[in-house]
Amino acid sequence: MPPPGPEHRSGFACFVGRPNVGKSTLLNAVVGSKIAITSDKPQTTRRAIRGIVTRPDAQLVIVDTPGMHKPRTLLGERLGDLIRSVWSDVDVVGFCVPADEPIGPGDRRIAADLTKEAPRSPVVGIVTKTDRARPEQVAAQLQALAQLREFAHVVPVSATAGTQVDVVTDLLIDCLPPGPRFYPDAELTDEPVETLIAELVREAALDGVREELPHSVAVVVDEMGPREREPGRPPLTDVYATIFVERDSQKAIILGSKGSRLSRIGTRARPGIEALVGTKVYLDLHVTVAKEWQRDPKQLRRLGFD
Ligand SMILES: Nc1nc2c(ncn2[C@@H]2O[C@H](COP(=O)(O)OP(=O)(O)OP(=O)(O)O)[C@@H](O)[C@H]2O)c(=O)[nH]1
After folding, report:
1. CB 85 within 8 A of CB 79
2. Bridge partners, residue 96, by sequence
3. How far is CA 216 from CA 3, 29, 209, 288, in A?
4. Are 65 and 17 in contact (CB under 8 A)?
5. Which of 77, 91, 214, 302 is deepest in the core (most CB within 10 A)?
6. At 142, is the pLDDT very low, low, confident or very high (cuts 50, 70, 90)?
7. Centroid of ligand 1 to alpha carbon of 232 (angstroms)
8. ipTM
9. Under DSSP, is residue 221 helix (H, G, I), strand (E, B) or coil?
10. Bridge partner list, 284
11. Per the record, which residues fall in region G5 (predicted)?
């Protein structure tokens, strides 16, 4: 890729919207690689994971924010702070509403908060999940969204069908100021690999568990590194990770009968980790009860929520 010319644009974007509207899936589709964690349960995204799109004419850095919700715990409050600090930092905001659900008070609250926290940022209105709605429903939703506030552009997209994803990227880039490239060409995300691995394990651990468990699960990679190569064997990376839960009963859920669920979590997480590190992976998972970790500042720090 040639060095950026004088017309080069760069900057930061984030997607906002109610939980479960498809923000992480859209981020993945725009960046073209699986880097943020998606799940069919609301509020699985905790960290500001960045995806980076590098083109000859622009570099777009996308920050993923957690779903909006009323704080119930210390963790909830920190999430709120994280969201607001992200909003005031970005050059353009993508405001997502799904095509198949009416616009409601939650969307109006986010629109009002946006105006308050990021009064100068251009906002692109995005109607997501268009594959789930009829064309006339999508058209009506675009109109309804346009009533909500002022938008630089309004656009429909289906991240899972891959429809209009390029248009969303173009419109976000259109709102960026002129500027240099912040990151080298090939880098998709600047999160440490341990964080991405921990998120993959957490996603696998949350698969098929009850609604109340998601907020109680945190994952930390304790240690990882290449194993000494044996002749004739493919390279192998050892990964040791701990799954933290708040109660013994939750530990039992994660473990399953005779550890069967824990081994399924490993099986489910491993392919993504292998894709990430580029070798076969030996994944050692351990479950620990850290009582009330969501309410304890010391534990929160240990788990990376500073
Ligand atoms: N049919 C369809 N489903 C989608 C689309 N985009 C996302 N989904 C699904 O909607 C659910 C939520 O998607 P996420 O990307 O995790 O939503 P989110 O807004 O990041 O959610 P939070 O992390 O809770 O804020 C998942 O089950 C996705 O597979 C889409 O374009 N079409």
Report:
1. no
2. 126
3. 46, 28, 11, 12
4. no
5. 91
6. very high
7. 43
8. 0.97
9. strand
10. 240
11. 157-159
